[in-house]
Automatic annotation (TrEMBL):
The chain crosses the membrane at residues 147-173, 180-203, 209-227, 239-259, 271-296, 308-326. It comes from the Bacteria. Pfam families: HupE_UreJ_2. Keywords: Membrane, Transmembrane, Transmembrane helix. This is HupE / UreJ protein.
Length: 339
């Protein structure tokens, strides 16, 4: 059942060549929130991924001619994001106007647009590089909210290289279908618990340390793979579902951090949370199925790969993850020292 190491090496090589070269900050969605105030006035918050206190993605929202700015915008860099706040006036109400995210067509990321009306209803839509303009309407139905957050969940897991690298490492050490099913189930259950608790505000952990420990979890599983290659019987190989559940709790905080950056519609929090989580699971299963299918196809090819190639995946996985541990720990520690 286990994917051949040579196949995993090919998958990992593709990641390192293309996926890992993309900054995680660049892949985070941008976020535009418009909150209705009084007298046809609206508060606008625009949040885009950034690096440090000076560099941000070159993305900006543009409204049609009905919308007029009020006062000067206020800018700030907070937690690897650039935030701009200002007010606008729109005679007749914001519904029916168009909003365009300039520069989105040149990125790999999305933009979530959310309008909170004074009566408690909300309009939510998602813009992509090939669809950068939306017409704001009254609050959409539950189907539109569900689909938006489902797609965001799928994209988050498929673009979350660290989360998928953890799943890939588990695939390397699992040697039976029963263990695979149990491991995926345990990982799903664990991160669903912490995703819900953290998103609803019952539990809170600082994001950077959680991200560093998530990377460390990948290093530990990579070390377990090497132990198994030497003939040992590590706990991860014998009870992978236990390891998946324990570390899955941490990964759930990572998912919650991403969802927190996007925000939840106040009138549809359970629906948005559920569909985002379902999207994460769907993306995870797509990845597992793709790796196993690729392994099954290429296993039939009459190609004899060198024995040393089998050592590439665990060392590559562990090295990349250890780089993340150092990078994330340093960024957090340095930020604490200068703050």
């Amino acid at each position: 059942m286990r994917a051949p190491n040579s196949i995993v090496a090919l998958v990992l090589g593709w990641w390192l060549a293309f996926g890992a070269s993309l900054s995680a900050h660049e892949l985070r969605p941008s976020y535009l929130q418009i909150t209705e105030l009084e007298g046809e006035t609206y508060d606008v918050l625009w949040k885009v991924p950034a690096r440090g206190d000076s560099m941000r993605l070159s993305l900006d929202p543009y409204f049609d001619e009905r919308v007029k700015p009020v006062g000067d915008p206020v800018d700030a860099f907070v937690d690897n994001a650039h935030i701009r706040r200002w007010k606008i006036e729109c005679p007749g109400g914001i519904a029916g106007t168009e909003v365009t995210i300039g520069g989105l067509e040149r990125t790999f990321t999305d933009a979530l647009v959310r309008v909170a009306y004074a009566d408690g209803t909300e309009f939510v839509t998602r813009l992509q590089p090939d669809d950068i303009t939306a017409t704001i309407t009254a609050a959409p139905g539950t189907g539109a909210v569900a689909w938006t957050y489902f797609v965001l969940g799928v994209e988050h897991i498929l673009l979350g290289i660290d989360h998928l690298l953890f799943v890939l490492a588990l695939l390397l050490i699992i040697d039976s279908r029963r263990k695979l099913v149990g491991t995926i189930t345990a990982f799903t259950l664990a991160h669903s618990i912490t995703l819900a608790l953290a998103s609803l505000g019952y539990v809170s952990l600082p994001g950077p340390p959680v991200e560093a420990v998530i990377a460390l979890s990948i290093v530990l599983v990579a070390m377990e793979i090497l132990r198994k290659r030497r003939g040992d019987h590590p706990a991860t190989a014998r009870w992978p579902w236990v390891v998946a559940f324990g570390f899955g709790l941490l990964h759930g905080f990572g998912f919650a951090g991403a969802l927190g950056e996007i925000g939840l519609p106040q009138k549809a929090v359970p629906l948005a949370l559920l569909t985002f989580n379902v999207g994460v699971e769907a993306g995870q299963l797509i990845f597992v199925a793709a790796v196993l299918l690729l392994a099954a196809v290429l296993k039939r090819l009459p190609v004899q790969l060198p024995e040393w190639l089998k050592a590439v995946p665990p060392y590559a996985i562990g090295s990349l993850a250890m780089f993340w541990v150092i990078e994330r720990s340093w960024d957090y520690t340095f930020g604490m020292l200068i703050s």
